[in-house]
Design a protein that fits this description.
8-stranded antiparallel beta sheet; 19 strands; alpha+beta; 6-stranded antiparallel beta sheet; about 500 residues; about 25% strand; 15 helices; Alpha-Beta Plaits
Length: about 500
């Protein structure tokens, strides 16, 4: 064999070995991960737990809680892990991973109800009920979250006719700290009903839930641009007063030349069969009711990443968003309208992270509050990536109720460094925005980072200490624990 051939053979073998090693690493990368290190999507609170219990059957969950009781261990509960303040885990706890506990247990087409295990996602429900022409009433603006997590946060949606999720819940079963299971509704163990929904897993494990459903109607999209100062009056006169509008949200500009001033509104308006827009000749019923998957994820990820890094990227992002105005007149089902793009927002970086915050202010305080946010973002040099506005109808249910009156919910997506300096900076800036919300008669959502201080949480939720007292009454050994409770519980 010549020297040239020998070198070529060696080169091929080396390349082959490197390729095999690379493929082995990629295939087995999860083996190098610590399965006991749990963290949420923000990656700001990595926590080592003692044991992970995969939720599969109720009996296994009951046994896990009973064993934790016997061995005096804490129990924490997680689903999709999109709460961003350590609500879903606790150090050295028995962590219940509920994602496998996801069966559809019962469906009543006539009564329009469904009973599901708490690890099921909204997508699973949509997939199941879509062929029957039914839809959910209230959920987040994505369908990837678990039902148990959504109940524990008492989420709200984009349908202006409904308030928070609690209004659509008929009943649920709750696994208590002593291993017993209680039926909970507005008439059975009724004190637990508003405590558990919005209770962040501190009272027990939600096993299964019966939810109310509604019709999967057809909507036609309407879009409008306007200045933020005109939004509140426009909403009350033209959206809240229009019974045909089934879904609504708005977005504020993050582009430098129109920062938090320009807005575009999206309405989904009911299409009636006698309306000339009814799409009998344009598309088939099957086409309208087929659940769509997210498209162009890679492209959208790339474009959105530009806004994380550059001001001109923010301008481009706002420009691209406005191009959806060309969808004016788009006809789609409620189920499809309630499943907007979300995958392109998934993001991991060793240097920085995206975090959500949400603030609720009375309708007439909207413009002034936005002015205040603009000032804080500018003065603190915060990297704001998105600002969405939704309406939250007043609700009289829920112990930790953020919707005691009609409010606008302003959802902010920030990017900030993972360094200690970056985290500390975001924390003190967040406290400024919380103070701003309080000064405008508003509050903030407890589901996200634990940046507000103990004084602020008590100003926003005066009932929080009574909530903690109820928790200790039902769980005197504080078996169910998370970082939220550890920080704000006055006994710690």
């Amino acid at each position: 064999m010549t020297r040239k051939k020998t070198m070529w053979t060696v080169g091929v073998l080396v390349t082959l070995v490197v390729a095999i090693i690379f493929l082995w690493i990629v295939t087995n990368e999860n083996r190098f991960e610590d399965e006991l290190l749990i963290q949420d999507v923000s990656r700001l609170s990595p926590t080592k737990v003692k044991e992970v219990v995969q939720g599969k059957e109720a009996e296994g969950l009951i046994e896990a809680v009973q064993l934790a009781q016997k061995e005096n261990l804490k129990v924490s509960i997680g689903g999709a892990k999109h709460s961003q303040g350590g609500h879903a885990f606790y150090k050295d706890s028995v962590w219940l991973d509920m994602r496998g506990y996801d069966k559809i247990l019962n469906f009543d087409e006539k009564e329009k109800t469904i009973t599901v295990q708490s690890g099921a996602t909204w997508k699973q429900i949509q997939d199941y009920i879509n062929p029957y022409g039914l839809s959910v009433k209230v959920m987040q603006s994505s369908n990837i979250f678990t039902i148990g997590g959504s109940l524990s946060s008492n989420v709200h949606g984009r349908d202006p006719r409904y308030g928070t999720l609690i209004e659509t819940v008929d009943s649920f079963r709750l696994l208590m700290a002593d291993g017993t299971v209680k039926e909970v509704s507005r008439t059975d163990n009724e004190e637990l009903f508003p405590l558990v929904i919005g209770g962040y897993g501190l009272f027990g494990v939600i096993l299964d839930v019966t939810l109310q459903l509604t019709d999967d109607v057809f909507y036609v999209s309407e879009m409008k641009q306007l200045n933020y100062e005109a939004y509140a009056s426009h909403f009350q006169q033209h959206i809240l007063a229009d019974e045909t509008i089934g879904l609504h949200y708005a977005r504020l500009s993050i582009a430098p030349n129109s920062f938090l001033e320009d807005m575009y509104l999206t309405n989904y308006k009911l299409v009636r069969e006698d309306n000339e827009l009814y799409p009998v000749d344009e598309m088939t019923f099957d086409q309208l009711t087929t659940l769509e998957e997210e498209k162009n994820v890679g492209r959208n990820k790339f474009l959105f990443n530009l806004s994380r890094k550059f001001d001109w990227g923010k301008g481009m992002s706002w420009y691209v968003q406005q191009q959806f105005l060309s969808d004016e007149g788009l006809i789609l089902s409620r189920n499809n309208a309630m499943s907007p793009f979300i995958e392109f927002l998934e993001y991991e970086s060793a240097k920085n992270t995206d975090i959500l915050q949400e603030y609720f202010v009375p309708l007439d305080q909207f413009a002034s509050f936005v002015d205040g946010i603009r000032e804080v973002v500018d003065s603190e040099d915060l990297n704001l990536l998105n600002a969405t506005v939704r309406y939250t109808k007043a609700s009289d249910e829920g112990f930790l109720n953020y919707a005691k009156e009609d409010t606008f919910a302003i959802v902010l997506l920030f990017n900030h460094p993972l360094s200690d300096v970056g985290i500390d900076h975001m924390e003190q800036a967040t406290q400024k925005i919380v103070d701003l919300a309080l000064a405008h008669g508003g509050t903030y959502y407890l589901t996200y980072q634990l940046y507000p201080n103990p004084t602020q949480i008590r100003a926003a939720y005066p009932e929080i200490d009574a909530f903690f007292e109820k928790k200790r009454a039902y769980d005197p050994d504080e078996r169910f624990m998370n970082q939220f409770y550890e920080k704000y519980n006055p006994r710690n």
